[in-house]
Specification:
about 220 residues; about 45% helix; four-stranded mixed β-sheet; Rv2466c-like; single chain; globular; Glutaredoxin; DSBA oxidoreductase; alpha+beta; 4 strands
């Protein structure tokens, strides 16, 4: 008799800011991992503007500009869409935004946000939330939920997954380019979990010599 039992997929919580090219690279990798491992990504918003709001004076001018009103607009629209149309829209809207912002190098303009909303079938009226603080507390709560799992010294993305013993394994990254595909994506996933789940392990790092490659 055939085994008809359906294996339950492991939830992988992923926190992103649409502006971050490295989070975008990692998010595309996670979509590859979904194809080769029994995992299901759940998308959450975090904000580089929130993360850096108390240290803007320490940042270069180009980052201060990026993390001003321009930096708030995409995350505000995503969190408003999530609140009004359900969590399942979050990943779809992120893909529509990220493809334009990063792959097509259009930047996070209001026109880009409007195009992304239209692509995923959301009402154009959501663009008004780019300048609204109505859901800022929800945004901050989502941001804090992610960042508190890994500490304040990191950025986006943050990934959290249940460990083998039921405990949480959470980490920043991985930072990788180009996006690993197929079995390469699976190997990176397996290795990342192995390292991150080791008690007392904190960091592996080397200097980046390449920028994001949106292949």
């Amino acid at each position: 008799m055939a085994d008809t039992q359906v294996r339950e997929k492991t939830p992988v919580d992923f926190w992103f800011d649409p502006l971050c090219p490295w989070a975008w690279m990692t998010s595309r990798w996670m979509l590859e991992v979904e194809k080769v491992r029994d995992v299901e990504v759940r998308w959450h918003v975090m904000s580089l503007a929130v993360l850096n709001e108390n240290k803007l004076d320490e940042l270069p001018e180009r980052y201060r500009e990026l993390l001003g009103p321009k930096g708030w607009a995409p995350v505000r629209v995503v969190i408003a869409a999530q609140q009004k149309h359900g969590e399942e829209i979050t990943g779809k809207l992120y893909t529509a935004l990220g493809t334009r912002i990063h792959n097509e190098d259009k930047g996070a303009t209001r026109e880009v946000i409007a195009e992304a909303l239209e692509e995923v079938g959301l009402p154009a009226e959501l663009l008004a939330f780019a300048d609204s603080d109505e859901y800022d507390q929800v945004l901050r709560d989502s941001h804090n939920d992610g960042i508190e799992r890994v500490g304040q010294e990191v950025g986006t993305p943050v990934i959290s997954v249940p460990g083998a013993e039921g405990d949480e394994v959470a980490f920043f990254g991985p930072v990788v380019t180009p996006t690993p595909r197929g079995e390469a994506a699976a190997r990176l996933w397996d290795g990342t979990l192995l390292v991150a789940s080791t008690p007392g392990f904190y960091e592996i790092k080397r200097t980046r010599t390449k920028g994001p490659s949106f292949e």
